[in-house]
Amino acid sequence: MSKEATLYSPVIKDERGIVSVVFAKDHPGYDDPEYQRHRAGIAEAALRYVPGQPVPDVVYTEEEHATWRLVNAELAEKHRRHACREFLAGKERLALPDDRLPQLGEASAAINEATGFRFSPAAGLVEVRDFYGSLADRRFQATQYIRHFSMPRFSPEPDMIHEVVGHGSHLSAQRLADLYELFGKAVRRLRSKEAVGMVSSVFWFAMEYGLVREDGEIKACGASLLSSCAELERFQEADIRPLDVASMAGQGYLVEQYQPVLFCADSFAHMEEFLSTFLITVSDADPLATT
Ligand SMILES: [Fe+2]
């Protein structure tokens, strides 16, 4: 089980074919049967989804649209101060609506127009080889639910805000989208669990939590940082280190807390070169030999 596995509420299908989502006691939706039914419906449609088909729409509640309006506005203000240029260019190209939660299908059409990537719905956790393998085909598997409205600034699991604002903006920027594809091709080529685990750790510290220097300032580049109002206020307090594969692979990561250690590139071009070199040369025989 990957470290990301602990992030997701498990999706279960019983012997009668009934799909449900299991929430932990501290999940904000634990005591809300209506939210649980809604989440089960979204998970069931994702399980039925066949790649290549149009992404089915979800009927979101008014509370969910309100959550989007609130978080999207807060993030937009923080992006202006803290996001790197490449992310901002992708976000502008993606042009998500401010007044309502967009459908994954419309975000998919926008990223496809920008870079050839598509979104497809994922019920919950996607197995690591399946997730990266689809990136090689320029397909990003994304969750389609949104966090519980009672805690709009907090999500215990990756939701639509993370997927479309964070990854969607990346996948609308050509140079970032090309890096996602390279991650996918590397995993498709590798056989050993150790090498795939290393690629996964580098993805975490670069594409989810990476930082880049711009005109002497440290800016956020990673999708997790850029989809979290709280993380965007705190990332500068982390122990910020230079990019290094061995350190990134050896650094444990905390899925439900602020990351105490983050990695920063000298520029976006440096991040691009560092990741391309690693992903093209990483091998099963000695995954660290490239560093
Ligand atoms: Fe993510």
From TrEMBL:
Residues 1-291 form the Biopterin-dependent aromatic amino acid hydroxylase family profile domain. Its cofactor is Fe(2+). It holds the Pfam family Biopterin_H. Keywords: Iron, Metal-binding, Monooxygenase, Oxidoreductase. It is an enzyme of class 1 (oxidoreductase). The keyword Iron applies. The keyword Iron applies. Its EC number is 1.14.16.1. InterPro entries: ArAA_hydroxylase, ArAA_hydroxylase_sf, Aro-AA_hydroxylase_C_sf, Aromatic-AA_hydroxylase_C. It comes from the Bacteria. GO terms for molecular function: phenylalanine 4-monooxygenase activity. SUPFAM superfamilies: Aromatic aminoacid monoxygenases, catalytic and oligomerization domains. Belongs to the biopterin-dependent aromatic amino acid hydroxylase family. This is Phenylalanine 4-monooxygenase.
